Amino acid sequence: MYGGDIKMASMKISDKDFDRLVTFMESKYGINLKQKRVLIEGRLSNHITQRGFENFTPFLDMVFADRTGTEMVNLLNKLTTNHTFFMREEGHYEFMKNVALPELEKTKKDHRVYLWSAASSSGEEPYTNIMQLLEYFKFKGTWQLSTLATDISQRVLDIAKTAVYHKDTMSKLPIDWQKKYFDSQPNDCFKVSSEVTRRTEFKLFNLMDRIPFRGYQFDIVFCRNVMIYFETDIKIALVNRIYDVIRPGGYLFIGHAESIPRDSTKFQYVKPAIYRKPLA
After folding, report:
1. Which of 113, 114, 115, 253 could bridge to 147 as Cys pair (CB 3.0-4.6 Å)?
2. pLDDT by 10-residue block (mean), the chain, 280 residues
3. Is residue 223 within a helix (H) or strand (E), and if so which, with residue range?
4. Do residues 11 and 56 lie in contact, with contact meaning Cβ atoms separated by under 8 Å?
5. Nearest to 136 by CA among 104, 179, 183, 92
6. Coil vs helix vs strand at 221
7. Which run of H or of E encompasses 46?
8. Is the dihedral of CA 173, 174, 175, 176 positive or negative?
9. Residue 5 and residue 43 in contact, taking contact as beta carbons nearer than 8 Å
10. How far apart, in whole angstroms, are the C-alpha atoms of residue 204 and residue 84?
């Protein structure tokens, strides 16, 4: 995340600090860090030193005392942020093109398609989703295409809203998409076109909270590579909340490293990482 960090030996976290951090992250965000002691030490050591703290104790005291929530979100980003890029998990987009979108074309009488990227990070996923919609529906009459993109971090949402990315994140996109949906910027960067960004709405949202988007009835929900941190019961509760905001026949895409116990949800299993809400 910070390319200029100087590599150093990991700072050790005491049992007491480890326990209070793990307990808080699980109760507040559903994130299970019980087996992530080495990850915590590796990802936070430089950050703690750069902030002027000698060990974890005063740093965590500061984080927990911050009433703005900024320090906790920064900590959360350090512990959970993964590398992301455009067209990640290409199989989902093949399924959209060949199965999900043809179904929508046949069944959506109002010609409206609404997606939700539930852990949108820095924006590559929701923007890819809109590009896929535009490509499919471009010669099929007038369709209203949009996506809601949510994340727990305002910082990554602000990055997403700038819509500027280095060319390295675009390597999996078809070349014609790169030419059609991006404008060149300095330093090998590109800005996502307004045709895509104007169809993308960003909101701050914690997946542990009640979903306030019930009136939307999403056609497809992407909730990928975030539930790997969740305990099973928390993951099931989230999936069932998502079920309530997907229209009958709609799809849920999760990360290929994730799974949902099939007897714990009303979703129908379609194939690895793809689930469907049954038609009424």
Report:
1. 115
2. 46 95 86 88 92 95 86 80 83 97 95 96 96 95 95 88 95 96 96 97 92 84 88 90 95 91 91 93
3. strand 218-223
4. yes
5. 104
6. strand
7. helix 37-50
8. negative
9. no
10. 19
Euclidean distance between CA atoms 40 and 21, whole angstroms: 10
Q: What share of the chain is helix, strand, coil (3-state, %, to 5)?
A: 45, 20, 35
The residues, ordered by sequence, that sit 6+ positions from 23 with a Cβ below 8 Å of its Cβ are: none
The pTM of this model reads 0.82
Question: The tokens 């999760």 sit on which residue?
Answer: 254
Token pair for 180: 């059609």
Structure tokens that stand for 212 in this block: 């306030």
Packing angle between helix 15-29 and helix 70-80, nearest 10 degrees? 100
Task: Note whether 119 and 225 are within 8 A (CB).
Answer: yes
